[in-house]
TrEMBL record, chains A, B:
Any GO CC annotation of this UniProt entry: cytosol
Keyword Oxidoreductase set for record: yes
TM region positions: none
Protein name: Alcohol dehydrogenase YqhD (Iron-dependent ADH family)
Record-linked SUPFAM superfamilies: Dehydroquinate synthase-like (SSF56796)
InterPro entries: ADH_Fe/GldA, ADH_Fe_C, BDH-like
Assigned keywords, A-Z: Oxidoreductase
Amino acid sequence: MLGNFSYCNPTKLYFGEDSLNFLNEELPKYGKNVMLSYGGGSIKKNGIYDKVMEILKANGKTVFEDSGVMPNPTTTKLYEGCKIAKENDIDLILAVGGGSVCDYAKAVSVSAYCDENPWDKYYLRMEDVDNKIIPVGCVLTMVGTGSEMNGGAVITNHEQKLKIGHVFGENVFPKFSILNPVFTYTLPQRQMVAGVYDIMNHITEQYFSGEDDNTSDYLMEGLMKSLIYSSRIALVNPTDYEARSNIMWTATWALNTLVAKGKSTDWMVHMIGQAVGAYTDATHGMTLSAVSMAYYRHICPYGLSKFKRFAMNVWNVAPNSKTDEQIATEGLNCMENWMKELGLAMNIRNLGVTEDMLEGIAKSTFIMEGGYKVLTHDEVFEILRASM
Amino acid sequence: MLGNFSYCNPTKLYFGEDSLNFLNEELPKYGKNVMLSYGGGSIKKNGIYDKVMEILKANGKTVFEDSGVMPNPTTTKLYEGCKIAKENDIDLILAVGGGSVCDYAKAVSVSAYCDENPWDKYYLRMEDVDNKIIPVGCVLTMVGTGSEMNGGAVITNHEQKLKIGHVFGENVFPKFSILNPVFTYTLPQRQMVAGVYDIMNHITEQYFSGEDDNTSDYLMEGLMKSLIYSSRIALVNPTDYEARSNIMWTATWALNTLVAKGKSTDWMVHMIGQAVGAYTDATHGMTLSAVSMAYYRHICPYGLSKFKRFAMNVWNVAPNSKTDEQIATEGLNCMENWMKELGLAMNIRNLGVTEDMLEGIAKSTFIMEGGYKVLTHDEVFEILRASM
């Protein structure tokens, strides 16, 4: 464990098949006006909308609908949400959906009472929040982002072709989140596996950084093994409760600040993936999978001992009489095979990237410094080419 | 992940070499009267007492000293603490020490304003807290119990020869805990290894229960591997910061409710160990180590697949052409060797138990039902005999 740090995660989680009932315990803590934020309406088809509305009504809430939150929430939608929130004196934003809806709800929660353009303040200048924050609660219907128990909120600005995540502090974390694995059953397989890879990548982004034998490294190996195990079951049987519940729980702990404590982190796959996302509007998890193998093969020589450990501890690669390079390579090959097994996007061309976009994507990729090699924009360009 | 559950851990942790400075951030949140609870005075020798007092004075606090908290805090001491707390209108109990001091502080926090005998109410009848609770903060100088981030508070009643732990709810968790690995450097080796085994046993108590492939099982395997790795380094070099910090962090996460969520747990080693402790006043971790091997060898046949998994995933036992029994046995032998390497108590005779005590200890052992075999008192007696 390196450096000095503090840890506190105030989000209360309700987990399980009956967890929606706990909404009855949380709602009385907030005022009358609830803004119900959700996506394209799938929650109306699968009955979750009706169940949530029933509980809201039973608790005497006035509900202000805020539908149409898109997979990559835009600044345009953010401003719309802020208007609803401010005009109706909203006491609680209830996000019902996946990571995009939760991210969006948090972005609205800090932006509604921001006295200047929130995109400029919170995304371009990355300032701390000094205005009123509207409390957020989440009902999760899709897993992957970990947004249900952290301060992350990614927003896309189409005009500027920028997709940026601000990681807000504890005061912006959801007050509560309801995690019912059954709510994720009806998700199309493509969305499920994109979520699985998002989880995996959250872990590898934090794992492939630093050289110490940190407790977090061991925890992350456990999370990865659990995820790989459960994802293979869920792929065959999407309604296996155990598998879906373990995936859901792994997602939360992969990105709720715990495993990053006391260590450095990378996040370059997310930076490249988000740049691809800003150009293509492709599913977040798929943008990550499509650039991952090229990225990890590129940085492997710079963090060889960790890639060797990854191969042995996560993928059970036997070390006998192999070189470190061979062991590390075998581990990455195992990961690639698992990704193909899941049916993930393995190149960015399939996501709509064309040759003429590569330079723009490379240039707009934000360079982070925690990984085994600080990339140049030329290297990002090469990784993008290798991902075509 | 089984059943429905909620998760929320409100304790704020400050970790690192400079973490005591954060006391300056916490103290202003509480009133003027601080009760400073600590043990036998080792904190006066190693300078921690002076540092804490300086910060308390700088923050304008009136300090009420409450020293002499013993390794197994007694009801007599508890009543003494309650008197100090109530008479002086204490606003914050600051526990400086190890798990015993933290446990004691929490027991005082719920007992001071209890309008009947707190031992009867909270330990014999295990009731919920319905009276005023005094906030508790901790400065940790010894690791193992996880008391710094949970609601556990073990108290010993010498007259009744009972050592009982009440696991209180979130409202009793410490408000903050300061974890400085350097503060644990001066601990005698015997105390250090007793703490290490306490951590290990917290994990195995939660691991050896249930049959599902739960994310928690993978997390616990990670915690155990980290602990085994770091303990071997700390044994040779007690001032290895990395090793001591990883042990400290592992201790917290081994028993702060996380890994027990969504699964069943055992706790029989603690029940037997605590009964031994009530008769001998031996160090908690040593009572656990002294009965562990006999207990685990006794229940191994009833949870064979988990013991096999333990052998392979935690101790890297190679499965090639061995029976499940052989693999499981090899894993337990690895654990025993590691325990001997640490210099732990491996039998209860060395802790002061005599033949004539065995029946009384067996009879006073509380039987829990979450393990692979619900024991009879006769079986407890046999385990105690095998531990002599």
